[in-house]
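Structure in, sequence out. Go:
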């Protein structure tokens, strides 16, 4: 048991590290071949924080653990809002001024509702997975078009500027390529280690596949978002801190949840829809209410509320770990 915990932690550390290096190398290579920082920021960097979830979801689905893969999506989205934004707002209240954020928040609610429609019958099928990937591609293309139009018209947006500033420059092609290769090799290996040992721990404690995805794996794969949000708020880039969460939640539903549907269409635990979806939708609506309030900010008190919701939810799951 101790060995499984140790290997799970090691797998998680390497999963997050390799995803970061893969994104760094890919972004640097893209910049070196002439792709604009705007495009890189809206695609490679924006999707980068969801790379651990994508790899874990694929690994779990291939292992026949579709409940774990879907639990990872639902749990990560809940953790992104309740845990990460809760902690971030407790450290420093978050102002929300970006027009993109005001546009993406309703979109986040839309794709969250879509997830509920697809999970309503507790089954995730192949064509549903394809639909999610098609919508994901359309989302990326639409965001790129909108962003280019705003740049062309000289409209300034804090989130766009912050994303572009994160694109690495001055990195040689050889160094960038090495990081890409290292990331591509270690990412799947670490994901496999994480899922394999999570299953061992789940069996030891009698946890269901769904709960292990909602707890240990979901919180672990959300670490890149936590790091990005904390770094953003420390630099005064509030829009980046909140934008990473909104973008990650959209990516998780459209891309990460589409993976198990395509790789391993399955009947899901009834609790995914009957319990966990509603928690995800609830905290998403709560975030919208906070963001669109009169002050256009998430206060420390509101951050405390989000964090307490997360603790209560995780506590409930631990007490009902077989469900």
């Amino acid at each position: 048991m101790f060995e499984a915990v140790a290997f799970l932690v090691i797998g998680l550390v390497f999963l997050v590290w390799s995803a970061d290096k893969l994104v760094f190398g890919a972004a640097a290579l893209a910049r070196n071949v002439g792709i604009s920082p705007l495009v890189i920021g809206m695609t490679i960097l924006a999707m980068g924080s969801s790379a651990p979830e994508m790899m874990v979801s694929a690994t779990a689905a291939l292992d026949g653990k579709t409940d774990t893969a879907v639990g990872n999506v639902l749990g990560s989205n809940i953790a992104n809002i309740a845990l990460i934004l809760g902690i971030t707002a407790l450290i420093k209240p978050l102002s929300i001024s970006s027009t993109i954020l005001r546009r993406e928040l309703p979109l986040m609610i839309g794709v969250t509702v879509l997830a509920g429609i697809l999970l309503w019958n507790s089954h995730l099928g192949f064509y549903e997975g394809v639909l999610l990937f098609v919508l994901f591609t359309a989302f990326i293309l639409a965001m790129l078009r909108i962003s280019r139009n705003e740049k062309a018209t000289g409209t300034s947006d804090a989130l766009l500027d912050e994303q572009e500033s994160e694109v690495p420059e001055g990195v040689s092609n050889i160094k960038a390529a090495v990081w890409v290769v290292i990331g591509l090799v270690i990412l799947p290996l670490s994901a496999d280690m994480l899922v394999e040992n999570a299953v061992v721990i789940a069996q030891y404690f009698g946890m269901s596949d769904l709960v292990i995805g909602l707890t240990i794996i979901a919180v672990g794969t959300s670490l890149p978002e936590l790091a990005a949000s904390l770094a953003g708020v420390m630099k005064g880039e509030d829009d980046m801190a909140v934008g990473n969460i909104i973008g990650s939640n959209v990516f998780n539903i459209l891309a990460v949840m589409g993976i198990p549907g395509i790789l391993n269409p399955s009947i899901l635990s009834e609790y995914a829809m009957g319990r966990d979806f509603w928690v995800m939708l609830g905290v998403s609506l709560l975030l919208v209410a906070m963001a669109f309030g009169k002050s256009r900010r998430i206060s420390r008190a509101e951050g405390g509320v989000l964090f307490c919701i997360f603790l209560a939810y995780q506590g409930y799951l631990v007490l009902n770990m077989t469900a």
